[in-house]
Structure formats: structure tokens, C-alpha cells
Design goal:
The protein contains 1 helix and 9 strands; from the N terminus they run H-E-E-E-E-E-E-E-E-E. With about 130 residues, the chain is of the alpha/beta class. The protein has one domain: Immunoglobulin-like (Sandwich). It binds copper (II) ion (CU).
Length: about 130
């Protein structure tokens, strides 16, 4: 019980640092997704009919870079209908890679992403970014 409270307090303090550090984000990424800093990167595979991983987490106020690798046999896309008022739509042809940087808002809990090619979302090409 006591341990858990300490953990919560530590996380709260850590978040303050993260928020403070966001002011001078230069957009550099260090290629490591889990440093707890103001930016992170995830390598995501696309195929028939999935995103892998289809569940990602990111800090509110941070930048999440998603490296997309379409290992499937057809074109897929990575789409977010409304990311802080903007639509994100990145098409990746079969066998190609692309990447997109997302400014994660801190006033939402989840951000859904999916593939807009007809039938793909229905077949499982969707996922969620959980905002910490
Ligand atoms: Cu698709």
C-alpha cells in the first residue's frame, strides 16, 4: 500500500518534469521508445489485416513517432480521424516504409487509429494509442 503511494507520487513528479521539458522539444529522436522523455518512437508493422503492435501508449504533450513498415501485399494506411482537430492519413504501399510524428494531446485518454482501405478496419486493422 505504502509502496503504491510512493510510486504514484514519483510518477506525478516525473510528469511535471516531462511537461516542463516539452517547451524545448527539438524533435530529435534517439531511436529508443522507452526513455520516458518528451518523445518516443514505435516501430509498427502493417499487414493483412493488422497493425502490430495495435496498442501503444504515449505521454500527453509528447511527440510520438510511428515508423510504419508495410509487410503486407497491398497498400495500407495509418489514419487518425481527429488528432487535436487534424486528420492524420499516411498511405504506405506494399513493401514500403514511412513514418509519422504525432503531437499527443494531453486532454484525451485514447486515440484510435485504423486503415481506411474498404473492409480493412472491419477485418481488424485498427488500434489504439493510450495517453498517459
Ligand atoms: Cu489496410
Amino acid at each position: 500500500m505504502k509502496k503504491r503511494l510512493w510510486l504514484v507520487l514519483s510518477l506525478a513528479v516525473l510528469s511535471l518534469f516531462v511537461i516542463a521539458a516539452c517547451g524545448d522539444d527539438n524533435g530529435d529522436d534517439n531511436g529508443n521508445g522507452d526513455n520516458g522523455g518528451n518523445g518516443s518512437t514505435v516501430d509498427m508493422e502493417m499487414g493483412e489485416m493488422y497493425f502490430d503492435p495495435d496498442s501503444v501508449s504515449a505521454d500527453g504533450g509528447s511527440t510520438l513517432t510511428v515508423n510504419l513498415d508495410n509487410v503486407g501485399n497491398q497498400l495500407h494506411d495509418f489514419t487518425i480521424d481527429d488528432l487535436d482537430g487534424e486528420r492524420v492519413h499516411v498511405e504506405v504501399p506494399s513493401g514500403e516504409e514511412d513514418s509519422v510524428s504525432l503531437d499527443i494531446p494531453d486532454d484525451v485518454d485514447e486515440i484510435e487509429f485504423y486503415c481506411t482501405v474498404p473492409g480493412h478496419r472491419e477485418s481488424g486493422m485498427e488500434g489504439v494509442i493510450t495517453v498517459n
